[in-house]
Specification:
Layout: H1 18-31, H2 34-41, H3 45-59, E1 64-67, E2 70-73, H4 75-99
Antiparallel strand pairs: 1-2
Helix pairs in contact: 1-2, 1-3, 2-3
Length: 128
């Protein structure tokens, strides 16, 4: 039996830690800049840029256009954003299901991931 992730076309999603890349991508789309996304995710701005570059390379599409100092998502990025939300929802459902198997019944152990990609706080205040 072949699992979906064993398909050659889906192997691109298994490279380079796709979940952190998707978290960085989502924050940049929402906040409009890699700098603000980095601040919100508590990482260095070059880390965000690296995640975006690796994600775009792995997917073979351009994700952003630079307009002034603002990163504007392409049509491909908008499609990816919807898929990113679906991935996050699937991980949240998985985490909820696995919570029943934990000894204390909690949704997550202390210090463990919550199952969904971290969401950066909304820092939009009109600044570009």
């Amino acid at each position: 039996m072949t699992t979906p992730l064993a398909l050659p076309a889906l192997r691109r999603y298994l490279r380079h830690g796709t979940l952190p890349q998707l978290a960085a991508f989502e924050a940049v789309v929402r906040l409009g800049s890699a700098t603000r996304a980095a601040q919100a995710l508590c990482v260095a701005q070059p880390t965000i840029s690296g995640h975006l570059r690796k994600l775009a390379d792995a997917l073979g599409v351009r994700l952003f256009e630079l307009r002034g100092k603002r990163l504007v998502p392409t049509a491909a990025a908008i499609a990816l954003l919807e898929a990113t939300h679906e991935v996050s929802a699937a991980l949240a459902r998985c985490e909820q299901t696995l919570g029943a198997y934990r000894e204390d019944g909690s949704p997550a152990r202390a210090g463990a991931p919550t199952g969904s990609m971290p969401r950066a706080p909304d820092l939009s205040d009109g600044r570009a």
